[in-house]
Batch of 2 targets.
Target 1
Amino acid sequence: MGSAAAGVRWKGEIKLVDEDTNEIDGGSFLSRLDLARSTPSWLVSLVIHLFILIVLAVVTTPVGRELGRVLLTIGQADGVEDGELTEFEIDQNVEIMSDVDLSESESLVDVAVPTLADVGMDFSANSLSPVPVEVGLGDPVIPASPMVGGRSGSMKKTLLMLYGGTPITESAVSMGLKWLARNQNKDGSWSLRGPYDDGGNSENKPAATAMALLAFLGAGNTHTSGEYFEVVEKGARWLVKQQDRDGYFARDARDHQRAYAQAQCSIAICELYAMTKDSWLRGPAQAAIHCAEEWQADDGGWRYFPKDRGDTSVTGWYVMALQSGLSGGLEVNRAVLYKVSEFLDSVEAYEGAGYSYQARGAPSQAMTAEGLLCRQYLGWPHNEPALLRGVDALSTDYLFKIGDVDFYYWYYATQVLHHFGGEPWNRWNREMRVKLPEIQVRTGREAGSWAPQSDDWGSSGGRLYTTCMAIYCLEVYYRHMPLYKANVDEEAVAGVSAPDDDKNFDD
């Protein structure tokens, strides 16, 4: 799982959002501030109570119950008289998708979806303020905290519709999880080598177990709930037993695989804690976070051994481990994350639009996708010029192609484009959601898995690696909550093209 060799070709010119305008959703930003200053305090109380009622409606309303139309008066300052009226509506003729209510040929992206115009909701304990979020179809969706909060219930079904998931993608996930469950060892672990066909060329049970667990967690299963709760519990308890006092999970793995395994185990335990807040997981999760912090190199990255100068491939996994810790409310040293930006600066190309495996290397499509995902989680705004250029390259010149198998690249590019949303995501998803399920094994002993033979890293990770990476891609609609607010000029973003033709990612 090192640097991919393929390159990214940049073309055209970048078109930026007009910095001289302050228009947001058709209204002046300054005029909205004036309205906010003129809102009476009693109105604030009314708004808060209405928001609480909406939260309860979203969380508790059974599938199919009509939510109807809600009018909200938005305001936030004391001692004022006026407010701004904002309306959103959930189409009463649309039912949230159940597991079996659409035919395999019917695409959810083509179904009329709930419109939550201008208003979103932050479910965190400290806020009930409007937080609209941009999604792939251009409409806001109600976000949840933590980032793993969209994996079950009505939120999962809504995210599937809004982001373009289909019954086919969900069927592929279901088959993949069944294959993983069949291949769990009696002690709760998984193996990279077998008992299935086409195993990896080396063993790494902590990594295999973490990757399998992440697939089950991504679909909403935990050790306390879900179809596979027993599978998850056995796997999680085995994984926790491998951890030593320093938070280290993978001492028995091959040298260069330890760092990947440690990050993957950390993500799995931190996500499970974030999803359940079960007290017995907090200690192992916090120890894993401290281990990640201690291993960071002086350049801000991670590599195969503690304090080694970083590479982008390993660093991306540790960024997600730390973000998973933050999501679960664990103690994370923010300075560690800030320092990652210094590492990314050292491996960037084209002013941050491309990324290489290590400093002074050639940028590649896989490392570019991984670097951009790190930048997104570290705070780059939606209209960051380098992000726009990178997204354009990934979604045009290096669009999902089933004939060019690269599960590692697909995994990272799928996340970057999903978070970015809009037409770049739709272009990618139209291919990915159809072609990836098509190459899943459908019959025989390995039904539900993805063969590793055509993938660059298939011989190392084996069938379990390719299967887990494919499942992560097909869970993307709800696996992590969206990162961006719906306050971007989408027409300007859609018009952005990449840099000049003569700038290429070399093989």
Target 2
Amino acid sequence: MTFSRLLFLTILASGLLARQIEAQARPVKFQTHDLYVVLQPPDPLGRIQDAGTVEIQKGWNFFYINNKATITHFSIAGKAAEVLTVQPADTTTLASVPWDELPPIKAGTQAMYVFFRSSLEGVVPFRINFTAPFSDPVQDVRFSNELVGKEVAGTILEQGAYLSPAAYFYPRGDEDLSAYTVTIEIPVEWESISDGNRKASTVHNNRKIQTWENPYQSDGVIIMAAPFSVKSIRVDGIEVACYFFADDTALFDTYLPAAANYLRMYSDLIGPYPYQHFTIVENFFPTGYGMPAWTLLGREILRLPFIVYTSLGHEVLHNWWGNSVYVDYQRGNWCEAATVYGADYRYKLLRSKDAARNYRKDILKQYASYITENNDFPIRQFTARSSPD
């Protein structure tokens, strides 16, 4: 073989290999999000813009978004980029996109792939505009200690709107933590809430516009909005608020002082509260969630007389363990145990030694009832609860 022919084949093979490597699609990593979410209930369609920064590679990239989204604009570093949206079941289209070990989307997940190509690499600005309907049913949702019900990912209804990361109402990639600022445009008679601190609230053209910002990076963001009545107090420079529906405003004077006492107690025990607000929010379907600087309690749960002495303090404490000091899921989810110890068990201990002993005994009885050789596993493998076991 002549030298020139060998050189030609070497160059050709190198070029093919380079194109093959360049063509492999990889998930992006979003660094920051600046979301603008327009809600016009009872229309289930959310109108969403997101801008920020994202880490990409040269060639093919992909991210995830709601599987019913219609993308009207997508740009990288100010330049419009074409996107290819692919449903996870569309194996024919997926086969046309070069990828290597493409992460599968689990059945039932409200996400699809969005592929794009770029000549840039590194952390660059992005912008996306899209619409998507959010209409998860809420009438049959159940939430209890014994029944881990089907969770609502996202819904926009006349009685309120709720959007969680599971609804993919913003683009998501392979990042662990991102920074979030969220602006929500809602009917003027509504109030909104999201993670972190409220930065602004204005009214324009009979629409309310409110901005929330988490001062810490987090693994996601949640939005809630509804025609709430609001009452707040201040404790040691922190705003403590209740966002309740009109039928439950009589509970304001029960929840506000109780939340203030929990904030004082845990600030003394652990250190300063990490946010400027703590808000108790009533939901129109069953939930018992704790997010950075707020908790979302379903109506039936909120009305239970013992909640202020049990679950409320538990959710306040999560703002230290889980919502500002984060869990490393590669090593197991320790924060629920720490929160139970500092809240549920502590309240029994403050009551009496007998109450604390009975609490420990009940936990051991539950362990003996549920755990067998077939379902036992090391604590480091626990990430989240998915059953009563």
